[in-house]
Amino acid sequence: MKKILLFVVAMLISVASFAQKKGDMYVSGFFSTDLGAYSVNSSDWHPFDSSFELGADYGYFLADNLRLGLELSVPFTSSLNEDMVGESYRYNTTTLSISPNVAYYVKMGEKCYYTPEFGVAYQRDNSKTKGTELFESSSHASTWGAYLDILAFEFKVSEKFSIGTNVGGIGFASSNYAYSETETYRINQFVCDFSNVIVDFRFYF
Questions:
Q1: For the chain, which residues make up each domain, given as ranges?
Q2: 195 and 166 in contact (C-beta within 8 Å)?
């Protein structure tokens, strides 16, 4: 009986050490990728909409299970398209994004948490278009938005290390595109995306 009691106490101490407490902090790095292929015509296949993203994140727990974060990321996307006369062209975009956010940790098991996250974001895009006949153009865009990541989770490997994953959610974005000083336009859009998987590694201190 005494051994059982000691075992239970040890388990409780272990679980408590993995709890997300006020004052905890972490830094993390993350990556995401999305690859695919499609046919420009019936006999020719090319890569399409390839994307890669690298980023860093800092988190601070204002209260137990309530985290405030700041995320910086640099995504890159490349897509192959076809114009009205059948000529193919590649569209490359490099982005710098900054996003303050807040998340709440709901315990699902001994080491697993459900972590829905709300945030606002600003990003700056620089794009270049290259065609098959040496056609090239450039543009840039500025975007403000807000998002709610619904499918977000964190697994505590140890007291100092965890793995987070995010499958996506919903959001709103307002973008201002500029192709020249006189050619600009704005797009507002509602986003619902559950196809972009992000994995990050968090180091607590």
A1: 2-204
A2: no
Q: Which two tokens stand for residue 156?
A: 């505590």
Residue 88 Rama label (left phi>0; alpha psi -120 to 50; beta): beta
**Residues 24/61, Cβ–Cβ less than 8 Å:** yes
Which CATH architecture is the domain 2-204 placed in?
A: Beta Barrel (2.40)
8 Å CB contact between 19 and 61: no
DSSP 8-49: HHHHHHHHHHTS--TT-EEEEEEEEEE--EEEEETTEEEE-S
> In this predicted model, which residue has the larger pLDDT, 56 or 40?
56
Comparing C-alpha atoms, which of 98, 96, 92, 93 is closest to residue 121? 98
pTM of the predicted protein model: 0.69
CA-based nearest residue to 113, from 65, 176, 59, 56: 65
Query: Where do the H-state alpha helices sit in 66-141?
Result: none
Span 121-131, pLDDT tens digits: 999 988 877 76
